[in-house]
Design a protein that fits this description.
- The chain has 307 residues and is α+β, with helices and mostly antiparallel strands.
- The chain is 43% helix and 13% strand.
- The strands form two sheets. The chain has a five-stranded antiparallel β-sheet. A three-stranded antiparallel β-sheet has the order 6-7-8.
- Helix 4 runs antiparallel to helix 10 and helix 10 runs antiparallel to helix 11.
- The chain starts with a helix and ends with a helix.
Length: 307
């Protein structure tokens, strides 16, 4: 495949509003497999692939080829192969939530919530689909297995600075809408063949005092690497995200608590207000003929939140 073909493939991926196969994800097929007595819902997942919000039966663990990955953590981690598909299953131990006002079930719910928001706002290609499972009385998240994942703290700014302006802007807005910029440390921003993925939304939004604030310089590994270089917010990307207002609220309602729905609605209103300020012909940045920076946009959003 030549460079032109590579570019076309990447462009097609970015245009998708709902993801299909991520870089590094097995293009797995289960046609022709004998599912035996597996539950219908598990057969559907094995046949069509896992979708965000799916409830995965525990038979995935009892019938699959399970490899224990949790040698160095108290959270159970497993690689599970069944009927030609491979999954990553992560349990949430009660000790993992010590110090947070969260239960293991709420951590799992947050994982689904963040990923669903990404899908609804057109950033599905920057997350990995996530389902939920109960196994041995413990809540789990289940995701398609992705090969070649590298934490960006190992590659630093080199990888992050290759991200296009539109993708970088969409990732920044995803972090704001889905997490309030909480728990976006270097281990939760990963690279697969140069493509950036946001993972591990479980502890997002746990600092209630920060829930209504747009604080891009706090808790965002992505922002800290991109902002000092003067990267600008892409106006078309902001407009596109705001155009998904109803879809984002619908996803929040399906997968979040009433409190989280209210928080996301406030964040969306702030984005819409910031967009109006961005397009104001009398604003300083437009008078000077330049694009609004992320810091300026954040301040504009905060003007509404502080009213």
């Amino acid at each position: 495949m030549d460079c032109l073909d590579d570019a076309r493939e990447i462009a097609a991926m970015v245009r998708q509003l709902r993801r299909k196969h991520l870089p590094g994800e097995h293009n797995q097929q289960s046609h022709g497999h004998n599912f035996g007595n597996l539950p219908d819902s598990l057969q559907t997942i094995l046949r069509d692939g896992l979708k965000t919000g799916d409830t995965v039966p525990a038979e995935l663990m009892t019938h699959g080829n399970v490899q224990n990955l949790a040698d160095t953590t108290y959270n159970p981690l497993f690689k599970v192969e069944l009927a030609g598909r491979t999954f990553f299953a992560k349990g949430v131990h009660k000790d993992a939530v010590t110090g947070f006002k969260l239960t293991p079930h709420e951590v799992v719910q947050n994982e689904v919530f963040g990923t669903a928001i990404a899908d609804a706002m057109g950033a599905g290609h920057h997350v990995i689909p996530v389902g939920t499972m109960m196994h041995n009385g413990q809540p789990y998240t289940v995701q398609p297995w992705v090969d070649g994942m590298t934490h960006t703290y190992k590659e630093g700014a080199k990888v992050l600075k290759t991200v296009s302006s539109s993708d970088a802007s969409r990732l920044i807005l995803l972090e704001y809408l889905a997490t309030g910029r909480t728990d976006r440390h270097p281990g939760n921003v990963v690279s697969v063949n140069g493509h950036i993925l946001e993972i591990d939304f479980g502890f997002s939004n746990h600092k209630q005092k920060e829930d209504a604030q747009f604080t891009p310089t706090i808790g965002s590994h992505l922002f800290q690497h991109l902002s000092p270089e003067g990267r600008k917010l892409d106006p078309a990307t902001v407009e596109d995200v705001v155009s998904h207002f109803d879809a984002i609220l619908s996803a929040a309602t399906r997968h979040g608590t009433p409190q989280m729905v209210g928080i996301v609605k406030d964040r969306l209103r702030a984005l819409r207000y910031g967009l109006r300020q961005m397009n104001d012909p009398f604003s300083r940045h437009n008078k000077e003929g330049r694009v609004m920076t992320w810091e300026e946009f954040a301040r504009a959003c905060n003007q509404l939140l502080q009213m």
